[in-house]
Design a protein that fits this description.
The protein has 378 residues and is an all-beta fold. The protein is built from 2 helices and 28 strands. Strands 1-28-27-26 form a 4-stranded antiparallel β-sheet. A 4-stranded antiparallel β-sheet has the order 2-3-4-5, with no helix packed on it. The longest helix is centred in the first third of the chain and has 6 residues. The N and C termini lie far apart (42 Å).
């Protein structure tokens, strides 16, 4: 079987979207059947054909920034989105442009800055912004009850904006959360109450921006920080005296990863590629060039650079294993499809449609708490 590095070497631009208005593309989700869902900085959600990138429709129900999109696993016609407007909504992708078929709310003071759906499609979790300058909450709903289904909240584990909640890909009760307070928490929700459910707390030494499960059995956890740090922890060591940290760099911009001896300007995110058994980390230059890297216990290693595509910062990506394709979106309002041997009809980098009033990431001085491992399962 052809290795990942060989597949990436063949990537070139196959399709490029044609945006109608300047907007940042913030997050992208894949429905393997036929669709891509993209959240935009103007609070809309776009549906694109995953092979042609043709715009198939959009949703305009949210009144605040959209913090992510994800398709249901067992019902792929159902798309979920979370927003700072205090709602998580479910949309029927067979009917673009219609109202949400599900709406989930909690306290009126809650503004969501992250959310996720469990692998069994039974549980929704959203992370809130900091409330009253002291509290932040993990909010849980039964996803099977569209009229409400609020199950409760966890309120003691984070003290600032919860920037990421990420369910385990196989264990419906395992949840990781990251926050601008610098902490990344791992929960076993089957234990019930928050204190019993908290298995481990890892310190990112910075404001955590994203978290992803990785490793052969998804026993590892990767974390990116807002100041371009990267951590890789081995949670299989929780019941041992071995260190959790496999790799740590406080600022990936300091690494000379590129052929010319330079480094990346920022990190986009990380994703575990099941077929290749590798953790793919994507970084970029402010000019729009992308750099695809592998991360393991030896560090970051450049696999491939992609140039001539975007004209500004890239904000999201996904790997379509079935199509052996990479999808990227960013601040230039462009959605790109990269495939082996791809040849787009109009050659050359398009002009940026970056909005004049750029969407700025809200940042606060993060708080550092405790040690790398505060609590582990007994």
């Amino acid at each position: 079987m052809e290795g990942l590095e060989e597949k990436l070497k063949g990537l070139s631009i196959a399709r490029r979207s044609h945006p109608e208005e300047p907007t940042y593309l913030l997050d992208v989700a894949l429905q393997p059947i036929s669709l891509l869902a993209v959240s935009c900085s103007n609070f809309t959600i776009h549906l694109h054909n995953k092979d042609t990138l043709s715009l198939m429709g959009e949703y305009r129900g949210h009144s605040g920034p959209v913090c992510g999109v994800t398709f249901a696993h067992t019902s792929p016609d159902l798309l979920y989105s979370g927003s700072a407007d205090g709602t998580v909504r479910g949309w029927d992708v067979r009917r673009p442009g219609t109202e949400a078929v599900q709406t989930f709310r909690s306290d009126p003071l809650h503004c969501y800055c992250s959310f996720d759906l469990s692998c069994s499609d039974t549980l929704l979790c959203a992370g809130t912004e900091q409330v009253n300058d002291e509290d932040s909450f993990l909010v849980f709903w039964d996803a099977r009850k569209p009229g409400g289904g609020l199950l409760g909240v966890y309120s003691e584990s984070h003290s600032d904006d919860i920037t990421q909640v990420c369910f385990h890909p196989r264990d419906r009760d395992r949840l990781a959360s990251g926050s601008t307070d610098g902490l990344v928490n791992v929960f076993d929700l089957s234990r019930g109450a928050e204190e019993e459910a908290l298995l481990a707390t890892c310190n990112s030494d910075s404001s955590a921006s994203s978290v992803c499960w990785s490793g052969a059995d998804y026993t590892q956890l990767g974390c990116l920080s807002h100041d371009e740090g990267l951590h890789l922890w081995d949670l299989s060591q929780l019941d041992t005296e071995e260190p959790l940290t496999l790799f740590c760099i406080s600022d990936a911009r300091s690494l000379n990863l590129l052929p010319n001896g330079g480094g990346v300007d920022y990190l986009v995110g990380g994703r575990w590629l099941e077929e290749a058994q590798k953790l793919l980390v994507v970084g970029g230059k402010n000019s729009g060039d992308l750099h695809l890297m592998e991360c393991d216990d030896r560090g970051l290693h450049l696999l491939r650079s992609l140039e001539g595509g975007h004209s500004s910062t890239v904000r999201c990506f996904l790997w379509d294993a079935a199509g052996e394709a990479l999808v990227t979106g960013g601040e230039d309002a462009q959605l790109l499809l990269w495939k082996p041997g791809g040849e787009e009809l109009a050659i050359g980098k398009r002009e940026s449609m970056k909005s004049a009033s750029a969407l700025r990431l809200k940042s606060r001085l993060h708080k550092i708490h405790g040690n790398q491992r505060v609590k582990k399962a007994t």
